[in-house]
Structures are given as C-alpha cells and as structure tokens.
C-alpha cells in the first residue's frame, strides 16, 4: 500500500507542469501581453480580467489563464512572487505588495523602440526569462530593419476613431517614422483633430487606429461620414486597437504593415 502511495505521488508530480521561474500576476491588459509572452504557463498565477478582450494582442493565450482583479486581497490570494503592471492598480496597492516582499515590475510608457527594448529587458529579467526577452527584441528588430525607409519621407496623418492624432514624443510617431513616413502632425504628444480641419486641409494619406473597436467611439470625429469619405481611398493601413494599447514589441508589426503597403 505504501509503495502504491509513493507511485501515485510520483505520477501526480510528473503530471503537473514544472515551474521554471517565479509565480507572476499581471494587473492590466498591457502587463498581460508581457507575462503571456515571457512566462511559462505554469508560472502565471493570474492575469487581468481584460486578458482575453478583443483588443488584447495575445487574447487566445489569455483565455485559459486565471483572472485576478487588481485588489490587494485578490493578488495576495494568488500568491505571486512578482507583479507586473503598466497602469493597473494604484500606488497604495504597489506599496502594500512591496511591504509583503512581492516584487513589482513597472512597464514604462515608452515613446520609441529603445524604450520598448528596455521594457522587455526589465520584465524578462524579473521573470528569469532573458532568452525569451532576447527573442522578442530580435523579432522586433527584424521587423524594423525590413520596414526602414519604405515610404521615403512621404506624409501621412494618424487618426483614431475618436478623432485624435499623435505627434512628436509618441510611440505612434516612432512607428510611422520607422517605415519612412513623415508625420503630418508636427506638434507634440496627442491632440484632437476636428472634422473641419480634415475637410479644409485634408492630408494626402491616413494611418488609422482603433477603427476595429466597433463599440468604442461610435460618434467620434473619425467616424463622421465626411471623414469616412476622405479616408476610404487614402488610408495606408488601419492598425487594430490590440496593436496600439501597449508599448510593446508588436508596435514593430505596425511599422512592418506600413512598409508592406508602400508603393513599389
């Protein structure tokens, strides 16, 4: 009987997935992408409730993961060694977790690809997965190399369904410039674009963003009939929301999409 018991325990142990790194919880949709891409499945103690939303880049991987709300009680119950966040939770939660010896890894709001590389290094090191981090960076670098100068400085305006654009000091601007596009908006940061501006001073080309999120910004300036008529035949690409909501390696996929749409 005793021998049978030991044999059963060994079989159970073999059936359980082996853990290679620290247990990790991600607190928001952006942190989910990093954790799902870098951590072993057995090490993922929980992801945010939005991990499988339509605008999540790795939503298929997030479907099977345990959901954890960004509260102290929920996170402690998941028993993580590391918590990864971009915007999820608040300062009090982070302090409470650190007092309990849980490492908190912050994803920075990168405005260029060097900042994305730093984010990948930071999270992959905390999760003891430097090789996977290096692989993500290598793939991102390949996309950027294949995108370079594809548009030879031609101009385009980035426009969201809500009617916003992005200029200097944004990752959107870096994505466009990586493919050789000049940004028609030369101001800093993000700014609204009025319907009147588009009608009176229409740009030559558009790069659209977040138009696939049909339930959001249904009455935004970017969806106005007059704007739609002008973007229908002048759109270079329409980036999905899942590509744009997180400063991560897949921003380079956006540059590669622009490059593929360049005239030959």
């Amino acid at each position: 009987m005793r021998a049978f018991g030991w044999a059963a325990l060994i079989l159970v142990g073999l059936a359980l997935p082996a853990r290679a790194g620290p247990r990790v919880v991600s607190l928001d949709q952006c942190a989910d992408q990093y954790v799902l891409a870098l951590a072993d499945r057995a090490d993922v103690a929980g992801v945010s409730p939005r991990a499988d939303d339509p605008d999540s880049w790795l939503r298929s991987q997030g479907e099977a993961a345990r959901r954890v709300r960004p509260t102290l009680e929920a996170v402690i119950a998941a028993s993580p060694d590391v918590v990864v966040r971009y915007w999820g939770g608040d300062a009090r939660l982070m302090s409470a977790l650190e007092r309990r010896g849980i490492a908190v890894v912050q994803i920075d709001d990168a405005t260029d690809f060097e900042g994305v590389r730093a984010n990948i290094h930071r999270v992959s090191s905390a999760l003891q997965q430097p090789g996977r981090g290096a692989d993500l960076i290598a793939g991102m670098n390949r996309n950027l190399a294949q995108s370079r100068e594809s548009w030879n400085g031609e101009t385009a305006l980035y426009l969201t369904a809500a009617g916003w654009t992005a200029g200097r000091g944004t990752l959107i601007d870096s994505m466009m410039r990586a493919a050789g596009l000049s940004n028609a908006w030369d101001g800093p940061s993000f700014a609204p674009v009025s319907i009147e501006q588009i009608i009176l001073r229409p740009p030559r080309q558009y790069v659209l963003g977040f138009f696939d999120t049909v339930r959001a910004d249904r009455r935004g300036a970017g969806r106005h009939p007059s704007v739609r008529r002008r973007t229908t035949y002048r759109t270079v690409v329409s980036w999905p929301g899942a590509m744009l909501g997180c400063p991560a390696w897949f921003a380079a996929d956006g540059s590669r999409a622009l490059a593929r749409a360049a005239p030959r």
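The radius of gyration is 22 Å. The chain is about 40% helix and 15% strand.
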